[in-house]
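Researcher: Next entry in the queue.
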Amino acid sequence: LRGETADSAKNRNRMQRIHRFKGGGRLLDVGCCNGSFLALMEREGWETHGVDFSPTAIENARSAFGQQRAICGQLHEAEYPDNYFDVVTVYDTIEHVPNPRQVLSEAVRVSKEDGLLVIQTNDFDSLNAKLVPRSLLYPAQHLYYFRRRDLVALLGDCGYQLRSEHFATIGVARFAFYLAM
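Model: Structure for this entry, 181 residues:
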């Protein structure tokens, strides 16, 4: 929660990737943490919303970054309207939720027909995952470990079509999917 700024290189990179597909609108960040990404997107003209299950994270999002539309709880508890968001992001969160299928299905429901889902998580089949002891790469708080093919299949089952994917190595291999309904 500490040290992240709205203008961080990580947040700017995320924003630029989203702008490849969507120029503005309503954005929901699932697992919004401290709200720094929301603050950047809001400055860029987006209407931002966030949800996180950590009360500390939500308090920080509200107090440090002014994110009053950040709420504490699970996505399905937020009761957002159908077809509401242009973009839903799930950065480094899907591996922590008790029911990833429920989160992705709810993301489908709250997304517009041409909505974009951006999901980022560690790749369990990456070279790093094969070379580095799993206990170092995948801490105990991860409830799920995804391989690319398994996550793509799950996303397809939930109604998404792959538009683009990006692989990055920042300590561990990560992959991000940019999907449209």
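Model: The mean pLDDT is 84.
Researcher: Noted, moving on.
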